[in-house]
Structures are given as structure tokens and as C-alpha cells.
């Protein structure tokens, strides 16, 4: 090629010069553009994952140092010791997710279809809590649910606490340090993650579809059941995922609003890492949690059939 | 609900004093309209004239500010849309994207608690030639197919009245022509009253038995397409439906069944029966004639024009050859842009821009309108449509 360009018949050299370099650059451009993303993934996802995975199969002690011994029994030991916390995490997160859906759907519906000029204001109110620290907001719930506070007093007067205590959600006339408090905290903290995707999918629904359904003999409740709700399924699915996944791994609500009896798997992992300093168990627990969530989410998405929705 | 649709054997749609206001804006002025059972009725007008609002009030999707809607003997004014024996084909079809074609068509039947829908749905899909597509989703179909699904979804319920809101607006010209015939065929076949909203005057005239021309929230004129075209009662109708040459004139005298008027020195005859206003001597009147009714003769041949025809002299300003006809714009003293559509049978080579000509037509083709109106009303709307 170089001989061609050096010995120029005046008309031919420009052709290869203008044709070839772009083709070469064109072939590599996509990879160069991908590079930042790939680097990001390697540094912040792949590397930590591999490091954790190797930690989870190490044995040893803090004094002697840890070595990779392919000790997979750590997984089994961790699971058999901490399965109650796993179950509790899933139960609390699922309850909080259902509560978020029940509270968030009407609000998202209201913002999308009924709010009119108040729409932006309500949206700001939904997002406003993010301007304060997660920790401070959760601490505020400690005050709200404090023993002898107005909320507990009201619930006591209405005999709601008798029912919840009988169900095992509260203890006597306390709300703080009970499962109910933890679920309340989770619901409160993750509610915006439910409302925003719900709102987005509801807002996209063409109003004429509601009219068409009403025109085709559907009562308002049927319009909701047969048209609005099915069309909002993408929002329901992404909202529940955005709520359930972080709620399962959360430990702040359980440690601030709960007690020793309401520990979630996040609390165990945190204490194994930072207090007990048993790194292999903590890493193994993290992987089990990840696998469990992945499995549940896969089944859920398959069941809800959202891939098929427009 | 199914009972009410069954026990009432059809009937006319009667709107009595129906109106709709949004704040200070009046979309529909109090309107009385009777749509005969089994007719193909068109509401024709430019956008914003209140035709869609009127349709939506019949459907129950819009609550009237005043007046009543009757279907046969039943007053349906207060009924919500899902209790009215009326179905709508929406402008952009509004097919349910999460349901397949079969379920879209079956929607109305299922809501009325009908269990065995399969046979009916299949028959209906065959009627609109979509039997093969039953299990596809709406977005997998072409515009024309979606349109047919929308018609099938409404018709399967055997409504007393089918409302069509610009049903062909999203289709291209060729498909639109085809669907016009198709809809007309279906209407004749099922015999249901069709109320069709459109801004396309050609569409309204080809499809409908009766047309109501609407303008600014009022019905300007109601009648059969040919009647509206030949006997417009207002300048809006004269200009919106096709083209009209309107000439400002003064009433001179009566001669038998004709009114003699003067326009810029020319004397014209106008049948008294075709004059929309009482003609009194000295009064003003707008004289109109359609461009295809007018003959065009070179000034040198003026002697060959038969006696008794209305004549106006002028000079050709412009001509355009269309194929079947040639369209001339003639500059006359009485009317600066007089349009003439001449069939290309024996073309006179002298009829070129600049030539002096005589325009002449049978006085029976002349119509008279109230001169107090805006002479250009409906011109812009007609062109936009």
C-alpha cells in the first residue's frame, strides 16, 4: 500500500487515502465509545464481585490472614444459621412493597389523571423527602412512633394495637422495636420508588382508550380492571422491583426502628463485615442474597408477562 | 342494559336544543337535529366548528350544557356512555394495545356478559376481511386494518347508532377512497344509523344520504348532498361545498317567476324560488352560480349565444389545463375572479389569458343569497379541507 501512495499516478492516490482510513476508524469507533462504560463496569462491578467471590471461599482468621481454600461450606453454614433473617427480610420487603403499591397506586393515578394544575406540586411533594438524608428521615420515624407519642396513643385508643399485637406485628402498647415499625419505615422510605414508575406508565395511557372502553359498555370499575390496570403493568412491575430489591437488603430501618428480634439479612451482613469481622460469611451471605433476589425477580417478571406489553 | 337495547326497535336520533359551552366559549349553540333511523348522516365542517362535540354528546362522552338527546323514545341525556346503545369509531381508532384483535372486537360483548363470543367475533372479522389477523396485536396491523378493527369492534354490538369521528382521517388518499365505499357497503348491509363527522366535503357528499354543514357551533344547512350543492342557503355553504361565483347585485324588478337584478350594468335573471331572501326592488342580493354551469364564448362569437341566457362580459385572467377540463379565472366588472370550468370537448384556441369573452349560463342555475353576509365566508375553510 505504501508503494502505491509513494509512486503516484496523480489521480489514484487520493482514492485509497480517503477511502481506507475512515473504514479503519469506523471499525474501532464503537469499541472506543464503549470503553468508558466497560471500564466503569469492570472497576465498580466486576472487580468487587470477583473480590467478594474469592473472599467467600476463604478460610482463616483476622490474625493469621485469610486464604482461598475453596471452602464452599461457608455458604451452607451461613444459610443454616441465618435463614430466619433471610425469611424475615423477604417477608418485610414483600409487605412493604404491597403497602407501597396500595398507597402509591391511588396517588400515582390521581397525579396522572385528576391533578390538573396541581400535578407538578404533588410531584414535588413526592420527591421532596429526597432532599433530606435517608438516615435523618428514618430517625424522624423514631420520634413519630415513640412510646406514648400521639400515633401510638391514637392506635391504642382505637384498639388497633390489640389486633396488631395479637398478630405479632407489635408488642403490647409499643410500636417502636416491632416488625410493624420496620415495615412502616421501609414503606415510607421506598414509596417514591413505587410512585414514580407508576405515574410514568399511567401518564402514558391514551385517554381515548378510557373513552373507548366506556363506549363499549364498561362501567368505571371495569374500565380500571380491563384497561387502566393492565396498561399500567410495566409501571407496577418496575415499581415493585425498585421497592422490593433495595428493601430486602436494607438494614437501616431494621436497626433504627427494630429490635434484636427484627433483624434483617442486611443487619447480619453489616455486623459480620464490620463487627464480627468474619469476611467469608459476610461475603457468602451477600451472594446468597443476590442469588435469591435474582431468582425471585426472574420468576416474577416471567409471571407478570411484561415483556409482551407495549 | 341488554334489555333496553333489545326492547327499543331502533328509532331516530333527536337532539333538542342541545348546546355545549366551555367557560365563555360556546362550542355548540342550541341545536335541533333529527337523524332519521337507518340513514347515513354526515356532520360536515372545518375543525373547531362543533361537529365532534355534537358527536360526543350523542355518545355520552361529553355532557351537554343544555338540551336533550333522544334515541327513539328513550331520553338518554343523563345516561353514561356505557349505558347507551351507541358505539363510536374513534379518530385514531383507540384500539386496546394490550389485547389482540379478537379480544378488541369481543370487548363490548364480554362487558355485556355474553359468554359465547367466538362465532360472532369470527363473523364480524370476516365481514371486515380480518379473519386471519385475529391473534395479532393492534400495533402489528396497518392503518387501514386498524381502522377496520375499530369498525368491527363497534358494529359487533349492534348499536342503534354508529358514530364515526373522522374515521378515515389517518389514511392516505387511495385507501380513504376504498374505505369510503367499504363503509357505505357495510352501512347498507347492516342498516344501522351512521353518524359520520368529517371535514372532507367530498367524503361527506360521496357517503352520506344527508349532510349537516356546521360552522362556528351552528348548523348552516341540512339536506341531501345534491340539494346542498345546488341550492346553498348561505355564503358559507356556497363557498365551503365546492366553489361558487358570488356577484353583488341590486334587485331591479320582478318578471313572472324570475327576479331581475343588476350587477355592474349587466342584467341577470334569477328564479324567485331559488332566492334565499325576499327580493324587493332596490334591495341588495348576492347572485351565485357554480363554475361548471357557465359557458365561455369568445367576444367575437357573442352573437351565437342563445337568447334568454344570463350574460356577463370579461377578460380571461388565467387558465389552467386540468385534463378533463380547463379552469379559467375571468376578470369581470361585477366579479373580479369569476371561475369557469369548461369541459375539454371543442377547445377554442382563442381562449387564452387576455382574450375578451362573454360568460353565459341558464338563469335556472342561478341562486340568490342574503347580501348582508360575508361574501368570502367558508372560502378559507373549504380550501383548508
From TrEMBL, chain A:
<feature type="compositionally biased region" description="Pro residues">
    <location>
        <begin position="7"/>
        <end position="16"/>
    </location>
</feature>
<keyword id="KW-1003">Cell membrane</keyword>
<feature type="domain" description="ABC transmembrane type-1">
    <location>
        <begin position="86"/>
        <end position="300"/>
    </location>
</feature>
<dbReference type="InterPro" id="IPR000515">
    <property type="entry name" value="MetI-like"/>
</dbReference>
<feature type="transmembrane region" description="Helical">
    <location>
        <begin position="90"/>
        <end position="113"/>
    </location>
</feature>
<feature type="transmembrane region" description="Helical">
    <location>
        <begin position="31"/>
        <end position="51"/>
    </location>
</feature>
<feature type="region of interest" description="Disordered">
    <location>
        <begin position="1"/>
        <end position="24"/>
    </location>
</feature>
<feature type="transmembrane region" description="Helical">
    <location>
        <begin position="176"/>
        <end position="199"/>
    </location>
</feature>
<dbReference type="GO" id="GO:0005886">
    <property type="term" value="C:plasma membrane"/>
</dbReference>
<keyword id="KW-1133">Transmembrane helix</keyword>
<keyword id="KW-0813">Transport</keyword>
<keyword id="KW-0472">Membrane</keyword>
<protein>
    <submittedName>
        <fullName>ABC transporter permease</fullName>
    </submittedName>
</protein>
<dbReference type="Pfam" id="PF00528">
    <property type="entry name" value="BPD_transp_1"/>
</dbReference>
<feature type="transmembrane region" description="Helical">
    <location>
        <begin position="282"/>
        <end position="301"/>
    </location>
</feature>
<keyword id="KW-0812">Transmembrane</keyword>
<dbReference type="InterPro" id="IPR035906">
    <property type="entry name" value="MetI-like_sf"/>
</dbReference>
<feature type="transmembrane region" description="Helical">
    <location>
        <begin position="227"/>
        <end position="247"/>
    </location>
</feature>
<feature type="transmembrane region" description="Helical">
    <location>
        <begin position="120"/>
        <end position="140"/>
    </location>
</feature>
<dbReference type="GO" id="GO:0055085">
    <property type="term" value="P:transmembrane transport"/>
</dbReference>
<comment type="similarity">
    <text>Belongs to the binding-protein-dependent transport system permease family. CysTW subfamily.</text>
</comment>
Amino acid at each position: 500500500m505504501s508503494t502505491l501512495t509513494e509512486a503516484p499516478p496523480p489521480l489514484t492516490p487520493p482514492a485509497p487515502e480517503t477511502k481506507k482510513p475512515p473504514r479503519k476508524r469506523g471499525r474501532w469507533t464503537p469499541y472506543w465509545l464503549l470503553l468508558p462504560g466497560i471500564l466503569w463496569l469492570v472497576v465498580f462491578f466486576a472487580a468487587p464481585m470477583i473480590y467478594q467471590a474469592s473472599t467467600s471461599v476463604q478460610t482463616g482468621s483476622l490474625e493469621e490472614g485469610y486464604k482461598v481454600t475453596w471452602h464452599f461450606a461457608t455458604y451452607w453454614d451461613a444459610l443454616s444459621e441465618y435463614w430466619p433473617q433471610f425469611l424475615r427480610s423477604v417477608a418485610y420487603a414483600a409487605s412493604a412493597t404491597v403497602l407501597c403499591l396500595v398507597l402509591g397506586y391511588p396517588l400515582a393515578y390521581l397525579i396522572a389523571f385528576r391533578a390538573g394544575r396541581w400535578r407538578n406540586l404533588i410531584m414535588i411533594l413526592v420527591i421532596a423527602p429526597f432532599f433530606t438524608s435517608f438516615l435523618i428521615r428514618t430517625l424522624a420515624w423514631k420520634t413519630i412512633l415513640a412510646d406514648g407519642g400521639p400515633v401510638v396513643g391514637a392506635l391504642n385508643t382505637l384498639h388497633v394495637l390489640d389486633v396488631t399485637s395479637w398478630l405479632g406485628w407489635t408488642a403490647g402498647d409499643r410500636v417502636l422495636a416491632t416488625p410493624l415499625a420496620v415495615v412502616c419505615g421501609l414503606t415510607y422510605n421506598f414509596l417514591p420508588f413505587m410512585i414514580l414508575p407508576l405515574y410514568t406508565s399511567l401518564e402514558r395511557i391514551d385517554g381515548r382508550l378510557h373513552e373507548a372502553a366506556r363506549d363499549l359498555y364498561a362501567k368505571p370499575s371495569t374500565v380500571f380492571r380491563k384497561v387502566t390496570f393492565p396498561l399500567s403493568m410495566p409501571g407496577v412491575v418496575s415499581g415493585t422491583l425498585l421497592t422490593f430489591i433495595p428493601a430486602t437488603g436494607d438494614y437501616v430501618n431494621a436497626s433504627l426502628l427494630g429490635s434484636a428480634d427484627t433483624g434483617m439479612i442486611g443487619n447480619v451482613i453489616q455486623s459480620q463485615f464490620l463487627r464480627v469481622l468474619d469476611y467469608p460469611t459476610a461475603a457468602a451471605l451477600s451472594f446468597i442474597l443476590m442469588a435469591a433476589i435474582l431468582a425471585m425477580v426472574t420468576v416474577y417478571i416471567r409471571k407478570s408477562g411484561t415483556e409482551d406489553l407495549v | 342494559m341488554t334489555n333496553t337495547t333489545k326492547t327499543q326497535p331502533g328509532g331516530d336520533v333527536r337532539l333538542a336544543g342541545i348546546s355545549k359551552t366551555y367557560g365563555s366559549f360556546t362550542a355548540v349553540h342550541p341545536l335541533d337535529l333529527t337523524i332519521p333511523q337507518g340513514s347515513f348522516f354526515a356532520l360536515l365542517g372545518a375543525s373547531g366548528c362543533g361537529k365532534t362535540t355534537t358527536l360526543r354528546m350523542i355518545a355520552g362522552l361529553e355532557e351537554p350544557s343544555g338540551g336533550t338527546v333522544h334515541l327513539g323514545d328513550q331520553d338518554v341525556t343523563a345516561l353514561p356512555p356505557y349505558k347507551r346503545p351507541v358505539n363510536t369509531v374513534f379518530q385514531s381508532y383507540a384500539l386496546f394495545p394490550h389485547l389482540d384483535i379478537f379480544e378488541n372486537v369481543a370487548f363490548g360483548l364480554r362487558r355485556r356478559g355474553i359468554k359465547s363470543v367466538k362465532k360472532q367475533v369470527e363473523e364480524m372479522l370476516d365481514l371486515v376481511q380480518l379473519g386471519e389477523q385475529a391473534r395479532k396485536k393492534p400495533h402489528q396491523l396497518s392503518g387501514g386494518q386498524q381502522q377496520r378493527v375499530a369498525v368491527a369492534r363497534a358494529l359487533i354490538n349492534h348499536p342503534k347508532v354508529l358514530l364515526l369521528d373522522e374515521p378515515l382521517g389517518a389514511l392516505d388518499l387511495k385507501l380513504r377512497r376504498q374505505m369510503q365505499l367499504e363503509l357505505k357497503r357495510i352501512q347498507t348491509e347492516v342498516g344501522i344509523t351512521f353518524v359520520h363527522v368529517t371535514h372532507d366535503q367530498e367524503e361527506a357528499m360521496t357517503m352520506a344520504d344527508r349532510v349537516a354543514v356546521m360552522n362556528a357551533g351552528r348548523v348552516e344547512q341540512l339536506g341531501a348532498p345534491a340539494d346542498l350543492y345546488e341550492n346553498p342557503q348561505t355564503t358559507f355553504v356556497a363557498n365551503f361545498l365546492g366553489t361558487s361565483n358570488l356577484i353583488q347585485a341590486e334587485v331591479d324588478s320582478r318578471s313572472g317567476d324570475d327576479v331581475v337584478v343588476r350587477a355592474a350594468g349587466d342584467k341577470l335573471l334569477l328564479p324567485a324560488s331559488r332566492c334565499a331572501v325576499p327580493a324587493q326592488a332596490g334591495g341588495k342580493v348576492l347572485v351565485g352560480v357554480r363554475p361548471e354551469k357557465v359557458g365561455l364564448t369568445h367576444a367575437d362569437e357573442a352573437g351565437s349565444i342563445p337568447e334568454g341566457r344570463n350574460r356577463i362580459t370579461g377578460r380571461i385572467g388565467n387558465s389552467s389545463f386540468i385534463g378533463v377540463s380547463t379552469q379559467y379565472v375571468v376578470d369581470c366588472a361585477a366579479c373580479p375572479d369569476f371561475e369557469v370550468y369548461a369541459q375539454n370537448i371543442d377547445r377554442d384556441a382563442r381562449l387564452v389569458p387576455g382574450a375578451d369573452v362573454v360568460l353565459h349560463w341558464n338563469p335556472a342555475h342561478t341562486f340568490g343569497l342574503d347580501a348582508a353576509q360575508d361574501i368570502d365566508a367558508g372560502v378559507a375553510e373549504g380550501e383548508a379541507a
